[in-house]
From TrEMBL:
Domain 4Fe-4S Mo/W bis-MGD-type stretches: 51-107
Keywords: 4Fe-4S, Iron, Iron-sulfur, Metal-binding, Oxidoreductase
Family membership noted in the UniProt record: Belongs to the prokaryotic molybdopterin-containing oxidoreductase family.
Protein name: 4Fe-4S Mo/W bis-MGD-type domain-containing protein
Coiled-coil ranges from the UniProt annotation: none
Pfam families associated with the record: Molybdop_Fe4S4 (PF04879)
UniProt organism field: Aquibaculum arenosum
Required co-factors: [4Fe-4S] cluster
Record's subcellular location: Cell envelope
Annotated region described as Disordered, given as residue ranges: 27-46
């Protein structure tokens, strides 16, 4: 038995039955369901769940790449480049593409530091050096 409760021959049988390539060799159309595995049939694009799409500018550098921000229930799902922008034409560098991670980081400062040397991250509950 395997960790999934199926024997190796059963797993191989399932793999060959669900793998798209043998079904396409057997004559099924590659543009039909033959291109889908059992695992991929239930997958949905995560942006399908978004109830709002906003625009923003990448916060990281002076290039000012335009972004599309997808959100659901006021939580950011995804950030991508805005294809309408003449500056970045839908692209983001790796730093800009990680903007959603910046927003979701529990250690992110959520209050202005007011010019002090040390800032207190309200959610993280830690002091940080803000200015040298
Ligand atoms: S995506 Fe990259 S190049 Fe564009 S503004 Fe952000 S950091 Fe700068």
């Amino acid at each position: 038995m395997t960790s999934q409760g199926r024997t190796l021959p059963k797993r191989l049988e399932d793999f060959l039955r669900n793998w798209s390539l043998p079904r396409q060799f057997a004559g099924e159309d590659a543009a039909s369901e033959a291109a889908q595995s059992e695992g991929s049939k239930g997958l949905r694009p995560r942006l399908e769940e978004a109830d709002r799409i906003g625009t923003s500018i990448c916060p990281y550098c002076a290039v000012g790449c335009a972004q599309l921000v997808y959100a659901k229930d006021n939580q950011v799902l995804h950030v991508e480049g805005d294809p309408r922008s003449p500056i970045n034409q839908g692209t983001l560098c790796p730093k800009g593409a990680a903007t959603a991670s910046l927003l979701a980081n529990p250690d992110r400062l959520t209050t202005a530091c007011g010019g002090r040397t040390l800032c207190y991250g309200s959610r993280a509950g830690r002091w940080r050096i803000c200015r040298a």
